[in-house]
Design goal:
With about 180 residues, this protein is α+β, with helices and mostly antiparallel strands. It is built from 6 helices and 8 strands.
Amino acid sequence: MSACAAAPSPVAVTIAPMRRRHLRSVLRIEAKGEHKGWSLGLYMSELSRRDDRVYLVAKVGSSVVGFAGLLFAGPDGHVTTIAVDPAWRQHRIATRMMLVLARKAVERGAEALTLEVATSNLAGQALYRRLGFAPAGVRKNYYAEMGEDALVMWAHDVQAADYSERLTAVEAGIEGVTTIEAVGW
């Protein structure tokens, strides 16, 4: 029986700052992904950059079931990574993490958000569209190990009241409880 089958429905998820102690679980999720993940060294380097990075994990109970990251470059927030353990997909884990990243970006003054998503990842693209992202271009062979292009997506004017309303509406559609640990943010 998978961990997901034993999970309560609706799911209670805790979003917390990523710490070094979470990296074994993060790398385990990375290994289950379709494209080559980041190395331990890269994560360690990213976690040390608290001024211009936000990395978080999603936990159900004490188990890390997802992770995501954002970097700040000028007025933009760039979603650098997001992944959910395949056993926990369909529980809106990625949606919850993206909501936290978007709100953290707005809180820090970002004017726009951007990301790359595999052209075959239709579920991811649908999520990003719900969060106000629109296609802006293609990066050819971005996922070289899979021989796949990336769709570049942007959400502009994220400081506007209607963007906040969009995030609130998306959040209202999530069943279950989302707790956000604010330590160190």
